[in-house]
Amino acid sequence: MIRRYLVLAILPVALLLGACAATPSAEPSASPPSGDGYYLPTCAACDTLLGTRGEALDVVHRGRALRFCTQACADRVRTDPDGVHAFADAKMRDDQRSHYPLDTSIVSGVSLGPAPIEVIVGNRLFRLASRDEVAPLLRDSKVVFERLDRAVCEAQSPRYAMQHKCPVQGDILPGDTMIDLVVANRMIRVCCRRCEVMVRARPYQYLGMIDYANRSKTEAH
After folding, report:
1. Residue pair 127/105 in contact by the 8 Å Cβ criterion
2. Are the C-beta atoms of 24 and 134 separated by less than 8 Å?
3. Maximum Cα–Cα distance for the chain, whole Å?
4. Is there a single domain that holds both residue 11 and residue 118?
5. pTM for the whole thing?
């Protein structure tokens, strides 16, 4: 069966809500990014594996965390910001689509149908039933993020491969305060708040471990 998706290119949340945009810059923003950290193993502007051309460069642009393989790629958020964001969006849609937990709109609850609207906000894929739902998503993004987090955990928790393992510290002990968080529409279980902070700050270090464990469990069954 051929599946069709309608991809909607959107401006950053702050712009659509009427906030003033800062001048595009390849330098990190003073404000922390919203949503998920940049988690892909490849550059946000090209397909180069991060770390193969020197230390990766972390940039916050339009309130979004991005990582680049070289200064030349990082500079593209100044010379071609829309192109960079569109390129990163496309890679994240393809990566997160199979992990998406719902066949109904996260905003309205309406069935997504054969051609859902796919929007990346804060490095997270949201699937909507119509373009009319984009504005409510952006207006209440924090609430909708939390709603999607709950849906991801509900769907993935029963088959999560590392039930008693923290990707940062190792074994989750009986006295630990277990936390389930979501990055890139994947559930990640950690043993404490400190580990949660580490995963959110550097998701690219831990997400591959989770994907590998879940994939291996699936293949074993």
Report:
1. yes
2. no
3. 52
4. yes
5. 0.83
Same domain, 111 and 190: no
Q: What is the residue whose two structure tokens read 């003033």?
A: 20
**Domain end point (choices 138, 153, 168):** 153
Residue type at 92?
M
Strands 117-121 and 6-7: parallel
- The Cα–Cα gap between 186 and 122 comes to 15
Q: Which residue among 153, 174, 200 closes a domain?
A: 153
Question: DSSP strand E in the chain: where?
Answer: 6-7, 57-61, 64-68, 117-121, 124-128, 165-166, 170-171, 179-183, 186-190
Contacts of 82 (CB under 8 A, 6+ apart): 9
pLDDT tens for the 221 residues of the chain, in order: 444 455 554 544 433 333 333 333 444 444 566 799 999 999 999 999 999 999 999 999 999 999 999 999 999 999 999 999 999 999 999 999 999 999 999 999 999 999 999 999 999 999 999 999 999 999 999 999 999 999 999 999 999 999 999 999 999 988 888 999 999 999 999 999 999 999 999 999 999 999 999 988 777 76
